[in-house]
Specification:
- The complex is a heterodimer of chains A (276) and B (164).
- Chain A is α+β, with helices and mostly antiparallel strands and 276 residues long.
- Chain A has helices at residues 4-29, 38-109, and strands at residues 118-127, 135-138, 151-153, 158-165, 170-174, 183-188, 194-199, 208-212, 224-227, 239-247, 256-261, 270-275.
- In chain A, 36% of the residues lie in helices and 26% in strands.
- In chain A, the strands form two sheets. In chain A, strands 1-2-5-4-3-12 form a six-stranded antiparallel beta barrel. A six-stranded antiparallel beta barrel of chain A has the order 6-7-8-11-10-9.
- Chain A is globular and about 90 Å long.
- The relative contact order of chain A is 0.12.
- The model of chain A has no long low-confidence stretch (mean pLDDT 84).
- With 164 residues, chain B is mainly alpha-helical.
- In chain B, 77% of the residues lie in helices and 0% in strands.
- Chain B contains seven helices and no strands.
- The chains are: A alpha+beta (276), B mainly alpha (164).
- At the A-B interface, helix 1, helix 2 and strand 1 of A face helix 1, helix 2, helix 4, helix 5 and helix 6 of B.
């Protein structure tokens, strides 16, 4: 049997080895990794059915609660929606000739028609349990033809891109994830000037950092930012977000702004993956 | 606590954190159930148990999160172990014990994690992070910490174990 002093020494050695292993792991995994490690995959695979069940139970409870609490206002809302439908139908009828005219003019100028996106609907099952990384798990994966870096959107705008895929599920990296490498290009809708967008959850959770591509690019509060044609993964002209703050800096090279994504990531339930 | 029941409790905590609490968030923040578990077990059952729960829970959290592997493992193990040592010197029946220790562990743990992440190119300003993330997280962590601590305390008394 070990003496108390020897026992303490062994414990210290074990703790030291653990510390070194963890430090090595931190350095090894700090870069953006294309695939899950087998341990990560195993844990995610075990968690997935439980997360799916918990997600459905919560969804059901929230639906029941929202239905019960909104019963009183439902009739009024129904009346308002009917009115809105009539107004939208009228607007659609007015827009139809404009669309045809646009297509005719495109043909004359020689522009190719905008292709419709090939969308696959998916349900958000879980969020990243740590609050440092901004990722969500969706219920579609490689079995549904999904691949890394495919864009993920909602009807409001861009959510992010597929980060890692597995046969039955995928991990989506949100625009706001602050990981090094999670950046993209965009354009200011007002001027069509190019800007660079980085994940930036610290300081303002749910915001992105926007930097101009050139010294004479002017960013204003309220500017809408869209995806650019220069983006590697995203189709052009999808809405990314709105500028909420411009941070002027004495050094013009360090000017930056904050963008709030149009999609509310804390209430994300359904998304669409844009397939190639 | 047996190994399998410990793993089951930790997986249940991660499932709750990533689904139910992700939806019932406070300013976009969900509670850190693994830290709460490590601190409560450490306070009541001693440093070895706090270290075990923190180490295993932090590792599972890192693997489920898929980010930098090791930061949660290190911080949760450290604070589980630290809470265990603190548990030897405090009056355990005082309800303020889990409140103060969970808040202190949250703030220190986040500061340590911030330091690690900023080494790897993570963009952020600590003061903003303190106000917008650490403050709501500290408050939110109190909510599960108090009932869990009281439950464990009652269970421990029922078993006639511990140092009460």
């Amino acid at each position: 049997m070990l003496q108390p002093f020897a026992h303490k020494k062994v414990l210290l050695i074990i703790l030291g080895v653990c510390f070194l292993l963890i430090t090595w792991s931190v350095f090894y995994t700090a870069q953006e990794r294309v695939e899950f490690t087998w341990l990560e995959y195993l844990v995610k695979l075990v968690l997935f059915p439980f997360q799916k069940a918990a997600h459905h139970v919560t969804g059901f409870a929230v639906d029941v609660w929202e239905t019960l609490s909104s019963l009183a206002s439902l009739q009024r809302e129904n009346y308002e929606l009917r009115e809105e439908v009539v107004q939208l139908q009228l607007r659609l009828a007015q827009l139809e000739p404009l669309k045809e005219e646009n297509e005719r003019l495109r043909e004359v100028v020689g522009f190719t028609a905008t292709t419709s996106l090939n969308l696959l609907p998916a349900e958000v099952i879980a969020r990243n349990p740590g609050h440092w990384m901004e990722t969500v798990i969706i219920d579609k994966g490689e079995n549904h033809g999904l691949k890394r870096n495919m864009p993920v959107i909602t009807k409001e705008g861009v959510v992010g891109r597929l980060f890692r895929t597995a046969p039955g599920f995928s991990e989506v990296i949100l625009l706001t994830d602050p990981r090094d490498g999670n950046s993209m290009s965009g354009v200011i809708e007002r001027t069509r000037d190019l800007v660079y967008i980085y994940g930036y959850s610290s300081g303002r959770p749910g915001h992105c950092l926007v930097r101009p591509s050139d010294l004479d690019v002017e960013i204003r509060v309220g500017d809408r930012i869209l995806t650019s044609g220069a983006s590697l993964h995203f189709p052009r002209n999808l809405v990314l977000g709105v500028i909420t703050e411009v941070r002027d800096h004495e050094d013009v090279f360090n000017r930056e702004a904050l963008m709030k994504p149009v999609v509310n990531f804390s209430r994300l339930e359904y998304v669409f993956v844009v397939r190639e | 606590m047996r190994v399998w029941s410990m793993i089951a409790v930790l997986l249940a905590a991660i499932t709750l954190q990533s689904t139910i609490f992700a939806r019932w968030n406070l300013f976009g923040i969900m509670p850190d159930l693994i830290l709460v578990l490590a601190v409560c077990f450490g306070l009541l059952y001693g440093p070895a148990q706090g270290l075990r729960i923190g180490l295993a829970g932090g590792l599972l959290l890192d693997l489920a999160g898929g980010g930098i592997l090791g930061i949660n493992t290190l911080t949760k193990a450290l604070f589980g172990y630290g809470a265990g040592y603190l548990g030897k010197t405090v009056f355990k029946e005082n309800i303020l014990v889990p409140v103060v220790v969970s808040v202190a562990a949250t703030v220190l743990g986040e500061a340590l994690s911030f330091f690690f992440l900023s080494l790897f190119g993570w963009r952020g300003r600590f003061f903003h992070y303190l106000l917008t993330t650490v403050l709501p997280l500290s408050l939110y962590n109190i909510l599960p910490a108090v009932p869990l601590y009281l439950f464990l305390l009652r269970r421990m008394k029922g078993q006639g174990r511990g140092r009460i």
